[in-house]
Amino acid sequence: MSDELNIALLGTKFMGRAHSNAWLSVAKFFDLDLHPTMHTVVGRNEQELAAFARRWGWREHTSDWRQAVTDDRVHLVDIGTPNNVHAEQAIAALEAGKHVACEKPLANTLAAAEAMVEAASTSEGKTFVWFNYRRVPAVAMAHKLVRQGALGTIYHARAAYLQSWGGPDTPLLWRFDGDVAGSGAHGDLNAHIVDAIRFVTGEEITAIEGAVEETFITERQVLDGGSGGEIAGAGSSTSGRMGTSTVDDAVAFLARLSGGGIASFEASRVATGYHNANRFEIHGEKGALRFDFERMNELDYYNPGDGPTAGWRTIDVTRGAEHPFVEAWWPDSHGLGYEHSFVNQAADIIAMIAGASPVVPMPDFADALRTQRVLDAAIEAARRRAPIPIDPV
Amino acid sequence: MSDELNIALLGTKFMGRAHSNAWLSVAKFFDLDLHPTMHTVVGRNEQELAAFARRWGWREHTSDWRQAVTDDRVHLVDIGTPNNVHAEQAIAALEAGKHVACEKPLANTLAAAEAMVEAASTSEGKTFVWFNYRRVPAVAMAHKLVRQGALGTIYHARAAYLQSWGGPDTPLLWRFDGDVAGSGAHGDLNAHIVDAIRFVTGEEITAIEGAVEETFITERQVLDGGSGGEIAGAGSSTSGRMGTSTVDDAVAFLARLSGGGIASFEASRVATGYHNANRFEIHGEKGALRFDFERMNELDYYNPGDGPTAGWRTIDVTRGAEHPFVEAWWPDSHGLGYEHSFVNQAADIIAMIAGASPVVPMPDFADALRTQRVLDAAIEAARRRAPIPIDPV
Amino acid sequence: MSDELNIALLGTKFMGRAHSNAWLSVAKFFDLDLHPTMHTVVGRNEQELAAFARRWGWREHTSDWRQAVTDDRVHLVDIGTPNNVHAEQAIAALEAGKHVACEKPLANTLAAAEAMVEAASTSEGKTFVWFNYRRVPAVAMAHKLVRQGALGTIYHARAAYLQSWGGPDTPLLWRFDGDVAGSGAHGDLNAHIVDAIRFVTGEEITAIEGAVEETFITERQVLDGGSGGEIAGAGSSTSGRMGTSTVDDAVAFLARLSGGGIASFEASRVATGYHNANRFEIHGEKGALRFDFERMNELDYYNPGDGPTAGWRTIDVTRGAEHPFVEAWWPDSHGLGYEHSFVNQAADIIAMIAGASPVVPMPDFADALRTQRVLDAAIEAARRRAPIPIDPV
Amino acid sequence: MSDELNIALLGTKFMGRAHSNAWLSVAKFFDLDLHPTMHTVVGRNEQELAAFARRWGWREHTSDWRQAVTDDRVHLVDIGTPNNVHAEQAIAALEAGKHVACEKPLANTLAAAEAMVEAASTSEGKTFVWFNYRRVPAVAMAHKLVRQGALGTIYHARAAYLQSWGGPDTPLLWRFDGDVAGSGAHGDLNAHIVDAIRFVTGEEITAIEGAVEETFITERQVLDGGSGGEIAGAGSSTSGRMGTSTVDDAVAFLARLSGGGIASFEASRVATGYHNANRFEIHGEKGALRFDFERMNELDYYNPGDGPTAGWRTIDVTRGAEHPFVEAWWPDSHGLGYEHSFVNQAADIIAMIAGASPVVPMPDFADALRTQRVLDAAIEAARRRAPIPIDPV
């Protein structure tokens, strides 16, 4: 392989844009051993696709994903398509010997995810999963602090990913269709926080101790033109008919950590007041950490060893000499945004393909399967439920 | 009854001080229909008791609680003793026709609590339970806002009471002795937040869906002189021997609300970084509320109807003309402290004995029994556990 | 002198209540060498006075202040009257050999304040000024940290005391009458923050470098019954006539500190959004401190020496073993309120009369005169103004 | 002119990168009427320049700025060079009929700035100044709210731009050389907040009422190779010699607003604890606004009309349908970073060149001159100083 890294991107929606931006920007900010080339973009709608390719600077475009992932000129296949096609596309790419970077969650079923891991195990290609929040500097810093022993034995991990766009006025978008989306808040949001707790603590989740799954709003307005719209659905017109949501609006569960601690996870699309509150608190014998993506440039750290001046330290994780990934960007304390996490991950993907180490551990397919197993077991727990009723009198 | 209200207080420790202060201060700040008289204080250690009575201005003192609660001159018996004697003392007082104000939790067993409710149902005395946090102005305000419809249908209630004084260096205080304390964080802390969610939402908890109970630190240093010490144990000397903690350090559980929402509760004594984080978040279709006792003079409120300027409103609940209980105290925005919640409750207890309405609903024994049933069911759920293990590979 | 300390209080309004509460509570929470006795209270309205005395437990009451301050049985005269009578009352008390605790500001004119210092210098009585915020635990802690060297050379002090009750709808209360009040926001609020910066930094203010004084609302509605009302004026009825405010609504000024740093001060009654934001930020070579009375139980501290985990530490200054004054109150992290600062000061006043040292330095008349000189110089600077106009084109 | 907009960029340091990124990204995220082409980049060091051009995708590069700004193919000259060459370069570009976008502050002297405005008045080119913070969505939103009447009469504006990289360990960078930098914190930081207050309030600053200028650290270590380094100076080696800083470390001043309000401004490089705290608070009769760039995705708003639920609303200004500039980026609540403000400004510059209106008002040279006059008058006030000393006794 020359020092060129030719990329084929599958998908042109929200993640298609986020990944295109990452491949466009990464070589501007990071010094790389391989030069990423935006080679081919794959989409279904030819006309939109051409415009997308032109706007973002993809050299070629095609609606034939299979051709793209087997193209000899392509080195890395980047999958940003719906969850239910990840497996087929990733396996084909791996069989063609490509490196594969896949959006989370790994697949829409556990079986599909296992097949992907199997395919990865026999391919020369390396695999990567876009759990992008690992590379928000504050989260990467949390990982490093735990590894350095800042927390000691971990007692509690408390994670929630709270959004509120899914109220009764939101129409029946594709995200409410279980056949397409796989699940609701659970697969979309709990996936991120399960990965985050595994990444930051360095521990595994060993058991689910209880779970609740709930669809608060079962009937929603059907969109004109079907369930195609993106999250916001702003300006979408509805048909006047009602349809049934077949996914969860919220899932919460309790779990055990391999180090002896207990953990809770909660995902919701109806947590009024929160828009993107991807957050966690971790308490250990020697310290505690706290993060909320709504203030993504901050990490809170508590060190009881500070004695009379102990207090939650609000660290602005924006100082290049001290905090991961930051040096590539701007002078100190010029905050980063959402998409920087993708650019940071792109830099680490390129580094790993070139044989170097990532700044912080990168999830491959096998790693992402572990997260998927947790999500699966949580749903099983929710459905097996044996509630203890409380006497109302 | 004249306009004098003679009070007998049982207990001279932490709660004995908090209640003494309440009875001392209430008539200074509130205009009352009955005048509270600090009549008799009851304790076990005669010498300490005399000093306590002198310091706080109790007219009489005795180590014979039974005599005090049946004394003809006494109108109100205030119970601030350990949980395992609440029932006997309260029932005796009720049988003597006294009004009874009892510390939370109502009793150390469900059976004892039921007996107390039974006694209350046949007594002329009124009953009150010191769930004092209801009368923190911010919490009372939250209750009022929900009652006014500010939240609409409630989807989520998320409550936690997080402390951190129970680490491995803390010796084997009486609070770690299950025979004395009944339970650990669960009875001490979850009791408060279960009451808070019931109070603020106006809903009941109908079922427990899963629970975890954990004792992280099982062996602790035995104190010289046994397990007598107060929370901090500062300056206590230890014996060099180790003993076994027989209570939980943390209990978390998931539950259903009567209005269709889901709820989570968590209590911990090892949540490093938090000292008294008695907090909740409640999300409804039309709004959300957030409270943390560590910032007790603030209530956060989110109104999606605010449109482009919607944001969490940090209300400083300190304006006399607008916020419950505040007018009695100081000019606007001169913040209150912990003990004011007891004084506020004392004012409402006196008002109710005089036949008036309290500012916000007051828990009686029957109401507190409902909270106790929830705590009991949660522990049952934790012990019935059927975890779903997760394949480690 | 026996171990009894007989107190005569002058004034029954806001400060009369705050001081009564302090003398009532101090012996309940603190172990004292002298026992404070609420001996005599002085007020102008006989009927209100009797009710006040009964409510708070003052043994005697009189409308003749001169008799009270010369009464042989009285040891300490506590002055909570309007600023324009402080001097006469304090001097009379000092001449009678009493200890005197006087509300801030020391006097309504610099000449009066100087006369008070002169009287103090020749009296056997000790003097104290109620700059109560020094004894908010967070502020006392800030003082201690600076003294321990936590800040090093101080570059900046930035203080503001921001309220918002003085908008155009507020009627012409006595606080807007310059003859009675002396000044507006300046004397009332800047007095506190000038004292705070002097206390916390341990430095003096050596020069005023510029100042602005402004009365935004010059005409206000006259109250029925004249300008008698308290701050809130809630429920007051107005006469329909307009009258002229003769005090400032806001005063800001820039100053030099004796250690080479620069400082800014700002007081306002029309800072919409703030109710009692008595706050400061102090930046030194080695650290920084930040306080806001609206979160009075917190002190923020920044230590650059924390390296990659440096961040503002939000210290909840509520841990008895670690933070000043807290041990007297409740277990850790049971927050204090406004009036506790007065009780804390009462404890230190009693300690000093008994010959002991206060927990942190106590301002006497001479010390308060230094604060008053700063306020006076600031107004002089504002009135000498020589603005540099800016070409509008 | 075709729909191509050819850009020549002058400068390749911090601002060269920020502007390059803006021109690279703007057409990816915004739908534009003209297509920006990264035509020519100008720098002094040929070798670095070639690498810079290659990295960022500039078609051509040259060290001859005069040739670039007069090149017939160039439509827009973008100036990101040191302040002392802005005037010469901008005037040459305007004389050649180019549009000119110039970094702030407009020039290093008032005379130079006036000459630039003069040149602009006779050129066909449009002018723009990179006061990029106007296009942080929260700041743009603040402007819109004021224009909609959310504040009413403005009483107070309180602005500060606080950094802390300039302590005694920081060597003698070019930013401490008055001949190169013009001034220190004042020109660098106060320029931004004077523009911000003018922009958000819509008012002019009419007079300076007092000012302080201070150089706390006068002697600094000389860098090996002279004063060339960038802000951080990380890893720079020093020569062992000391040199003299000839710029201010901090400047504070008080001012009057055209609407009758008063304002304060403060810039510092030694405000330990703050890294990029570009912040303001504005209080009006009907409401208040608060912003801090360290939490750039939030705007705080207080509406007294909210009555009992009035509180500071923390608005996350990240909702595309509701907040300026956001829709171009990601779904709701995926926060933006520092450089997005430049991209937003690039979009508005292109819109204006194409004849459309900007989202919020854009500063041209004449507008930036008004900011410069304020800065100049503030320094004049600081140097004219007539301090009022305070008697130390």
Tell me what the structure shows.
Four copies of one chain form a homotetramer. Chain A is an alpha/beta fold and 393 residues long. Chain A folds into two domains: 129 residues, Rossmann fold (3-Layer(aba) Sandwich); 199 residues, Dihydrodipicolinate Reductase, domain 2. Chain A is 31% helix and 25% strand. Chain A contains ten helices and 17 strands. In chain A, the strands form three sheets. Chain A has an eight-stranded mixed β-sheet. In chain A, a hairpin with a 5-residue loop joins strand 14 and strand 15. In chain A, helix 4 runs parallel beside helix 5 and helix 5 packs antiparallel against helix 10. The longest helix of chain A is centred in the last third of the chain and has 19 residues. Chain A is globular. Strand 16 of chain B pairs antiparallel with strand 16 of chain D.
Summary keywords:
homotetramer; 393 residues; alpha/beta; Rossmann fold; Dihydrodipicolinate Reductase, domain 2; 2 domains; 10 helices; 17 strands; 31% helix; 25% strand; globular
- Looking at the overall shape, the CATH architecture of the largest domain in chain A is 2-Layer Sandwich
Which whole number gives the mean pLDDT of chain A? Answer: 94
The helix count of chain A comes to 10
Instruction: Determine the strand fraction of chain A and express it as a percent band.
Output: 25-35%
In N-to-C order, the SSE pattern of chain A is EHEHEHEHEHEHEHHEEEEEEEEEHHE
Instruction: Show the largest interface.
Output: C-D, 61 and 62 residues
How many separate domains of chain A?
2
Oligomer: homotetramer
Helicity range of the residues of chain A?
Answer: 25-40%
Any low-confidence stretches of chain A, pLDDT <50, length ≥5? none
- Main beta sheet of chain A: strand number and arrangement? 8 strands, mixed
Based on secondary structure, the structural category of chain A is: alpha/beta
CATH class of the largest domain in chain A: Alpha Beta
What's the total number of strands of chain A? 17
CATH topology of the largest domain in chain A: Dihydrodipicolinate Reductase, domain 2
Distance between the termini of chain A: 74 Å
Shape annotation of chain A: globular
